[in-house]
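re: that chain from earlier
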Amino acid sequence: MARILYFSRDYTPHDHRFLTALAKTDHRIYYLRLEAASNVIEDRPLPAEIEQVQWAGGNHPPTLRDGLRLLTGLRRVIRQVEPDLVHAGPIQRSAFLAALTGFRPLVSMSWGYDLLHDARKNPLWAWSTRYTLRHSAAMVGDCDTIRRLAISYGMPDERIVTFPWGVDIHHFNVKTFESASLPTFSLLSTRGFEPIYGIDVIARAFVIAARQQPNLRLTMIGDGSQMASIRQIFLVGAVYDRVHFVGQVPYDDLPSYYRKADVYLSASHSDGSSISLLEAFACGTPAIVSDIPGNREWVTPGENGWLFPDGDAGALSAAMLNAYAQRQSLPSMGRNSRWLAEQRADWEKNFPQLEKAYAIALGLPITSAPLHLR
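^ sequence. v structure.
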């Protein structure tokens, strides 16, 4: 049994899932939160077995001026908790701060966007990425794209553990595989209304496609800074009445939206193994997604979905119309999607891989045995 300080940027559905799984192990888990962002929704409480640590951070998004105060506070927490290892991410935020304390061993966990996007912002972010990985005993990532990027920033390949975070394939379960029936054809978007997710690309593509095929309907889950501009695109395009804005949806209700959809959409400009995509696949819903490295690891065109050039609204609209034209093939593609989720995206099967990262960090033998679940 190890004492583990789990230090994350915020409390998200992903954090809840990791902490819930860790709570079932023999390890003693302490949870530390770097910030509290208003756009992060997770209303499920921490598992009773997890000990949340109160400290100088965790109240608002930190600024550079907060750095010294937070570093001092984190060192105080480490002295108080006396962890055997610190598990921290994203790379340039929680993991970087943990690296600066000098505590070892550190297991850094990439959240995808930290290496795909943030590390490229400017030389300072690139430097903090290299510094963090150089001072990490092990690193966890969710796809081969992240592995290759981590290596490019100096992380030794043998100290990287790659496994898709996956989904609860019992919660996100399969729908009845039936061909789409007229009069409507349902498209679903679940990503936040922020620039990185390309929601404007989906909006412009839907305007083009819906003008040609009036049976198309679009359901949009989420919100964000681009909400007003996205609504304006639909209004100007005269298709606003064919779009259903749902807002934030509780975790328990998400599967029903995937199962009702004929096709899942994502125009994200940056992704590792997209959890939303895996949720759709687990529900047997084929996908149309941007042609970026993370998506190419999951989508085989014609088998479980389609790819379109990143940022190309015209190509996405053509893919929407193509999916509609091929709607009789969707049940077969849905079965392929579910099969892939069962084989590669099952959270219960994938989570025990985390023990390998802990073993590497602690200098213990790496075995095929999973985390010791209670």
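The radius of gyration is 21 Å.
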